[in-house]
## 1
Amino acid sequence: MKAMKLTGIGQMELMEVPAPAIAHPDDMLIKVSQVGVCGSDIHYYATGRIGSQVVEFPFAVGHETAGVVVETGSGVKNLQPGDRIAIDPAVSCGDCDQCLAGRSHTCRKLKFLGCPGQLEGSLMEYIVMPEKCCYKIPGHMTMDEAVISEPLAIGVYAVNQAGSLEGKRVGIFGFGPIGMSVMLAGKAKGASDFIATDLIEARKDFARKLGAAWVGDGHDPGLAAKIYKETPLALDVIFECCGKQEAVDIALETLKPGGKLMLIGIPEFDRWSFSADLMRRKEIAIVNVRRQNECVAETLELMASGKVNARQMVTHRFPFEKTKEAFDMVKEYRDGVMKAMIEFD
């Protein structure tokens, strides 16, 4: 079968590799239909690492995935060949202290699609995943939505972790696919008062289109003052979705006392810096959001019921053979790209 693998920094090659095979009773062989290009994929493509996770080339990334079941292991109970599925890319052990505490996303033995040292990614024609990571989608749901359930589930989990947003003034700093996912999830759960910031005009336009009450420029040196002009009592919750130190600095300045800062973005540096004075005097709570702990099923239900329309996230499509073009576009934020989709069929 064919696989698209990273072969160096900014380099990618289509290779012929052995097809995977079912190894455990609960395994399923899946024909990949579509893969979304994620910001974390771009980190590996552009720098070869995210923190301590370093790529050993060649390596396939990709984890936002939809496909069709081809074959099932003897222990698979609820899915069958021909089923269209969304995939949770996190394979947890189910037995460690983290899994038993309801924290499968920080499983001691976690294996994640497209994560160096764990599992090769889904930028290949076939993959094998356990049944517990696969969710049959209803007939009216598109494969786009199945793919988008992965980043959208991060937004759902982040909103769940933030607590009720009803009646609260919410900021989203960085309006890429994750920032958009946070707004879609927040609106579905009763939030209505959002402001957003970004550096890219097309993404600011997306925020306005989705109903942000005010949209600011992340480069603006007067951004904090403008946020205070818009909301004099400051913000209740801010979702940091861009991994930038400047966004954290503005967040601490524009959160109200008792406010909450949700850290979701992946920084390219090793350490955040926080104003101890602002955090202490305001008693700011800081919450790290790690992926999408058991939220894929809830996310699919939100889309299936019509409470969330995430189809608009997809702005560009590329055939599998042109995956590198997609990665270069997303890396360089060209042509107003929000979500680039790799299509196998």
## 2
Amino acid sequence: MNNGRAVASLISGRLIYAINWYNFAAVFALIARDLNQNVSGLGVVVGSFYLGAGLFQIPGGLLAAKIGPRKTAAYGTLLASAASLATSAVTDFSQITVLRFLVGMGMAFVFAPGVILMARYFREQAEGFSVGLFNAVFYGGGALGIFGWAVLADAWGWRESLAISGGLGILTAALMILLVPRDPVREDFAMELTEIRRIFTSKWLFLLGLGMFGMMSIWGIVTAFMVYYMEASLKIGVVLAGSVGALALLGSGISCPVLGALYDRTRKATELMFICGIAGVAGLELASQPNVAAAALANLVAGFATGGIVTVGFSAARELAHAEYETLAVSCLNGTQLFAGFIFPPLFSLSVISLGYSRAWMLSGLYTFPFIAALLLTKSKRVTGHIS
């Protein structure tokens, strides 16, 4: 690490970013009571959030190439945090759907620039660890968002809890502006269509994206529905459900630095990602057993698998493009996987209504496996400064 203050500001921003990402799932049961909603409403809002996060990944990558990752990440954090703060004042459920889209949109401008900035402040050959650390903070913040905000909402109310996380997010945007050095943006920089075309048409990046799409399908379902499932179907309290739900984030937080360091040593991206993907599918099958112990184990397994696959995938993608386009390569990969969050949570909610939770969990494991298997169609490689 060669700039502790910058890294500290990025980590604090990542922590609150994660809280604003995941705390909605923790407080949804209270929102549902106030606004007369059920699992179908949760599916719609989660889909709206992931749509915003997915649609604006590539615009975020292009903006970062033009103005630099520091400004892009700060502006995105500000937008996401302001929308989260505004959610605390809604009067009907349709407003929440729009605001969660804006939260996702703002977050689309944060992740890839953050990955690039973190790697910039770590020594060469430790970039995988830096990405793992960045993701570990995300999952740790997510665990705090699910468990801590379940407790906070239960004690103070869901509106107050969302107002707190939104306000903290605005504060972290200010810290980024103050503590992260200005980007070395070239005055003569212009978009190179040849380089952009290489990224958009990369078969290797596309196959990595399919594997991560399958994993994000699993992750989106587990993190969005597990807490509400335990409350509504297994009949356990908000705080205990939040505690069990947070195990997914705990598992991810453990796996991120471990798999990041393993990737630094082996450079076997697709092999490591495939193993993690199969573990994620197994986690969904575990969730089909209707008891708290199975739910807890499913959360841990799915979380550990997700942390590993995203850390390795983003570390590999970052190395495949010229410096100005690292953010775009990461954004393309992230955008591909995030669309799973738009597609599969609404489908899962419909499956629950039609088939019940146990069969819905089992079916989800079956339809995510083909995407994970796509990783077998490619092989690991490292091509710094060029993408093919």
